[in-house]
Amino acid sequence: MKSEIEKSLITLLKGVQHFDNEVFVEHKELFEKLASSQSPSTLFITCSDSRINPSMITQTEPGELFIVRNVGNIVPPYGEMLGGVSSAIEYAVLALKVQHVVVCGHSNCGAMNALCDLSSPKFDTMPTVRRWLRNAEAARATLGPLEAKDMGPETVRELAEQNVLLQLAHLRTHPAVVGALSRGELALQGWFYEIGTGQIVILDEQTRKTRSVDEALAELHAEA
Ligand SMILES: [Zn+2]
């Protein structure tokens, strides 16, 4: 009898085997081209949530997105927590010279739910999560006093959107970002991804309103 751990490991390894034998072979030329360098256009910051597949939702190939993922798609303000996120931002902007930074939040985000419940004893055993989510505390404040019982899908969505806007503001505290923005070499964008419908909307930092991808493309006079 195989244990659940063994079964899930087998699934994982079979996936790798399929990649090696089929998928890699199909895309061999792309991987050979990418073997010696990368030149991604976009730094994509999103939640670790297993239901988000950045390459699938943007229909990009390996080499196009430089990806940072963490609980709650958070960017700690510069100097607060110098670590993985700040290093990735600095490297993406200064060394890889990405042209875009996208912060992408999502529906049904566990981190957003947790934000309204951080003082609960259930987080006593997760001090790191509790501390990390403090970086999103100001997003919660924009929605007024909230408790765990208020967290329906609409509130989670609103909080996730406010969190994206907050993390965009945090991005602007990073010297590499400020420098590239002032030289006109970088653009920031906030997205919200609805898992159940596959819809992505773009959040406007100035108006704090959302617009559809179709609207954004029309503004850019992009061909359909
Ligand atoms: Zn999430």
UniProtKB/TrEMBL annotation:
<feature type="binding site">
    <location>
        <position position="47"/>
    </location>
    <ligand>
        <name>Zn(2+)</name>
    </ligand>
</feature>
<keyword id="KW-0862">Zinc</keyword>
<dbReference type="GO" id="GO:0004089">
    <property type="term" value="F:carbonate dehydratase activity"/>
</dbReference>
<dbReference type="Pfam" id="PF00484">
    <property type="entry name" value="Pro_CA"/>
</dbReference>
<dbReference type="InterPro" id="IPR036874">
    <property type="entry name" value="Carbonic_anhydrase_sf"/>
</dbReference>
<feature type="binding site">
    <location>
        <position position="49"/>
    </location>
    <ligand>
        <name>Zn(2+)</name>
    </ligand>
</feature>
<keyword id="KW-0456">Lyase</keyword>
<feature type="binding site">
    <location>
        <position position="106"/>
    </location>
    <ligand>
        <name>Zn(2+)</name>
    </ligand>
</feature>
<protein>
    <recommendedName>
        <fullName>Carbonic anhydrase</fullName>
        <ecNumber>4.2.1.1</ecNumber>
    </recommendedName>
</protein>
<dbReference type="InterPro" id="IPR001765">
    <property type="entry name" value="Carbonic_anhydrase"/>
</dbReference>
<dbReference type="GO" id="GO:0008270">
    <property type="term" value="F:zinc ion binding"/>
</dbReference>
<dbReference type="InterPro" id="IPR045066">
    <property type="entry name" value="Beta_CA_cladeB"/>
</dbReference>
<comment type="similarity">
    <text>Belongs to the beta-class carbonic anhydrase family.</text>
</comment>
<comment type="function">
    <text>Reversible hydration of carbon dioxide.</text>
</comment>
<dbReference type="GO" id="GO:0015976">
    <property type="term" value="P:carbon utilization"/>
</dbReference>
<dbReference type="InterPro" id="IPR015892">
    <property type="entry name" value="Carbonic_anhydrase_CS"/>
</dbReference>
<keyword id="KW-0479">Metal-binding</keyword>
<feature type="binding site">
    <location>
        <position position="109"/>
    </location>
    <ligand>
        <name>Zn(2+)</name>
    </ligand>
</feature>
